[in-house]
C-alpha cells in the first residue's frame, strides 16, 4: 500500500539512514530507533489530534514495519560470518527501500501483513 511505503521511506530516512552515518548525532538517532522499535519491529501508533481523522493514517494504525538488519538484532559491532567461505565477514549493502522502493509482506493470521525492509549483504573476502 502507498501509505505504508510512504511510512517506510520516512522511517528509512529519519531513523535508519542516520544510524549508518558516522555523524556526531549517531547516538541520538540510535536512541530514537530504540525508542520506536521493539527489536526490529515498529508498530504504527494511534494518531494524536488532527491526524486521527486522516483516512490514510487511520488505515496504518496497528500495522507493523520490520527493519531486518543484523546490527539491530545483535548489536552495532556484529558482523555475520560468510556462510560460503567461512573466512570473511558479511558487509551490509543497500536496503530494499533504497533499491527500488520494495517491501516484502509477511502474511499473518491475526491481521494485516507486516511489511519488511530488507538489506543485502556481501562477503568482504569471497564476494558472495
Structure description:
The structure is a single chain. By secondary structure, the chain is α+β, with helices and mostly antiparallel strands. It has 4 helices and 6 strands; from the N terminus they run ααββαβαβββ. It has helices at 2-20, 26-36, 55-58, 70-74, and strands spanning 37-38, 41-43, 64-68, 90-95, 104-106, 114-123. Strands 1, 2, 3, 4, 5 and 6 form a 6-stranded mixed sheet that branches. A hairpin with a 7-residue loop joins β5 and β6. The longest helix has 19 residues, at 2-20. The radius of gyration is 16 Å and the shape is elongated. The termini are far apart.
Structural class: alpha+beta
Q: Per the principal axes of the C-alpha atoms, what is the gross shape?
A: elongated
Strand content: 15-25%
Count of helical regions: 4
What is the average of the pLDDT values?
A: 77
Low-confidence stretches: none
Number of strands: 6
Helix content percent band: 25-40%
Order of helices and strands: HHEEHEHEEE
Distance between the termini: 33 Å
Main sheet: strands, sense, barrel:
6 strands, mixed
Radius of gyration: 16 Å
Task: Give the secondary structure arrangement, pairings included.
Elements: H1 2-20, H2 26-36, E1 37-38, E2 41-43, H3 55-58, E3 64-68, H4 70-74, E4 90-95, E5 104-106, E6 114-123
Parallel strand pairs: 3-6
Antiparallel strand pairs: 1-2, 2-3, 4-6, 5-6
Helix pairs in contact: 1-2
Amino acid at each position: 500500500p502507498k501509505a505504508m511505503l510512504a511510512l517506510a521511506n520516512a522511517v528509512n530516512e529519519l531513523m535508519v539512514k542516520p544510524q549508518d552515518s558516522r555523524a556526531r548525532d549517531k547516538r541520538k538517532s540510535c536512541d530514537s530507533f530504540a525508542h520506536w522499535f521493539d527489536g526490529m519491529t515498529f508498530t504504527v501508533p494511534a494518531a494524536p489530534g488532527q491526524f486521527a481523522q486522516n483516512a490514510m493514517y487511520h488505515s496504518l494504525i496497528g500495522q507493523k514495519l520490520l527493519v531486518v538488519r543484523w546490527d539491530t538484532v545483535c548489536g552495532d559491532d556484529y558482523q555475520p560470518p560468510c556462510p560460503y567461505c567461512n573466512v570473511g565477514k558479511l558487509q551490509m549493502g543497500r536496503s530494499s527501500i533504497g533499491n527500488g522502493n520494495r517491501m516484502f509482506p509477511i502474511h499473518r493470521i491475526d491481521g494485516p501483513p507486516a511489511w519488511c525492509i530488507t538489506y543485502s549483504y556481501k562477503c568482504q573476502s569471497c564476494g558472495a
